[in-house]
Structure formats: C-alpha cells, structure tokens
Amino acid sequence: MVLVSSLSDLQRRMTNCMVYVKIMSIWNHPPKNRDEITTMIMADVKGKRMDATIPTRVYNENYRTKLREGEWYLLSDFKVVLPTRSVRYSQHPFEIEFTCKTSMDHVRSRSRWNFFHEYDFHMIKIAKPEEKKFVVDTIGLIHSVEPVEILPWVTRPGESHEEKRYITFTIKDTLGRFMNCVALGKAGEDFLLQWEERVSRVQYTHEKIIASLRFWRISEYKGNPCLLADEGCSRTFIDPNFPDFDLSHYISAFSISEEEELNEEVVDSNF
C-alpha cells in the first residue's frame, strides 16, 4: 500500500493508498437517523483540506468510539469519489468516502499546527459565486453583539424552537474593516455561551475580545456580505488558544491601529 504525502495528490478511483489526516471538523457523529451522513473536513500535514463522508450503511461502533475532532489518523482502504452532494466544504475537487474496509488508525500528533487559513475581509465582500461553495476561516475583534432573534417561519415537524433562534455579531480586522456574522441554531447557542461566559467574568474590564471563526460560509444578510455559520461544520473560538497563534500579539495590532487613527484625527483637526 502506497503512502500518499498530501490530500492534493488523491485522484478519482485511486485505491490501495493511505494518508495521514487530521479531523478538523466532524458532525452527524454518530448519525441520528438513516438520512444523516457523518461528514468530516480533513487536513493533511501540509494543511490541505478535503471533505470525507461515512455512509450510514458502513458506519459502525468502531467509528463512533474512535473518531475525534482534532486528532490525527492514518487513513487507508478508502474510495476517492466525485462529490455526492451539492453542498461542499473544501476546495478539493473530490471527496473521500469510507467503505466497510476503511481503517482509521489513531497516531500521535504529527503536527501541533492548527492550519488556520485566514480569509481577508475584502475577499469575502467581493467573493465570486464559486468562492461561496466552500467554507472559510477568519478572525477579528468582536465589535458588537446583537440580541437573539427568531426566524419568522412556522416550526416544522421534528424541529425545535431553538433551531429558529439566531444571533448576529460584528467583528473588526486590524485594518479597521467590519464583517457581519450570523449564527443560527446550535452555532448561535455555542457563540452566545462563550460570549456570555467571557463578559461575565469578575476580571472582565471591557478589554478586547477576539473571535476566531472556522469553516463559516460566505453569504449575505439583509443585502450585505456576511459570514454564515454552516450547519454542522462551523466552529467559533473566543480568545483562541492555538499553539500557532499569538493572541496578545494579535490584540496589540488593534492598539497600534487605534493609535494611528487617533493621530490622523489630531492632524486633521489642526487644518
């Protein structure tokens, strides 16, 4: 069996190969019904991403207990296929499909890198339709958080009232640009829990709070570009503690930017 160095090297109908992968995001795990497909966003040692699915018919107890987000595995005996659904997450033209023979052997961490691919606010605002087919990462200072709202549709059978709740917030980058973000259902609840926990701390003195958004989709909200939390895959980290990210250094960039803006205002006022 041949060890493939990168997910980028995987081509359709390739067999008898294996590759080291990190599960970046996994959802419908385990599936609650036959209509749900366990889906993952995987990354290789170079940070290249690829979608992967486990059809319900081959999902087993071993996968349920073994597969964990953030862990590394040696993946073998899988199929490389054309995307089976219209919804995509990575830019890779193919996806991995598990079979009844697929093996996921857990391995010790091959890299502590978080493979965060920051997407520029300007690129989000001018994104073309094909760029909205995959999810992106970005980061910014939380500028404002709006009250929770309720979508005005009738609750469908099997749908909870919480799934209609959504929250909008705005983040700011180090260049002073703003981006609207919309999180619906569980993604909104997750953001709200983190936000409320952070601002309710006794030590909180209105200092800058950073939000790292992973696997969000470029969309529109009230006619303006926004980032929309995608059901299942999206993750939000407030004041992220990643091994390859210096939070204090990132926050200091805002202080420098604000000082420069203040100096510009002083200069302007002198004319």
From TrEMBL:
Residue runs in coiled coils: none
Location of the Replication protein A 70 kDa DNA-binding subunit B/D first OB fold domain: 6-105
One Pfam family in the UniProt entry: DUF223
Top-level taxon of origin: Eukaryota
PANTHER family linked to this entry: OS03G0429900 PROTEIN
Name this polypeptide is given: Replication protein A 70 kDa DNA-binding subunit B/D first OB fold domain-containing protein
Species of origin: Arabidopsis arenosa (Sand rock-cress)
